[in-house]
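User: Run a structure prediction on this.
Assistant: Running it now.
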Amino acid sequence: MTFPAAFYRWRPHPWHGLSVGQNPPELVHAYIEITPFDLVKYEIDKVTGYLRVDRPQRASSQPPALYGFIPRTYCELRVGALCSHCDCGDGDPLDICVVSERPISKSEVILDARVVGGIEMVDHGEADDKIVAVLENDSFWGDVTDISQLPAILVERLRHYFGTYKLVPGQEPQFSIERVYDHEHAFRVVEAAIADYDAAFGR
């Protein structure tokens, strides 16, 4: 049997086997690990490519948007150089949150996402940026091009979630939210994460 050129005979690894997107750094693919309905933190297993249960969430807050990563990105020296409080990335794919009008309740899906901004987070002295995007062709958010066009309360919910989702009672937090940045800086972070990936793993 002959397979079409675009056909994957075997499931591709979500981090290494999928493309970064149609027109990065503006239009990228997002592989979704967590939905706004999840109370458990799921994370891609870097070896197998399947979702692994990382931890049940201690806090009662739920992610206010779809949460995952951009394939073929890596947060290392170039991403760290763009951070105002550290020198290196966290060694993970670049995180992304995707806003959509219609509720999407399934994880392990691939979305076309338009990058509109980001949140600069530092975790244990390493850059842990959260890119903020909107679902491409979304009937409500589809025309948004910058994070300043999103409702302030939605951005505040994102800041609050990432400012609390790793808190452990009785322990000092080892992470901080430094700032929210616009689409131009977000583009630079995405480009840096693509370059870090190419340097670490090749094209």
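The chain has a mean pLDDT of 91.
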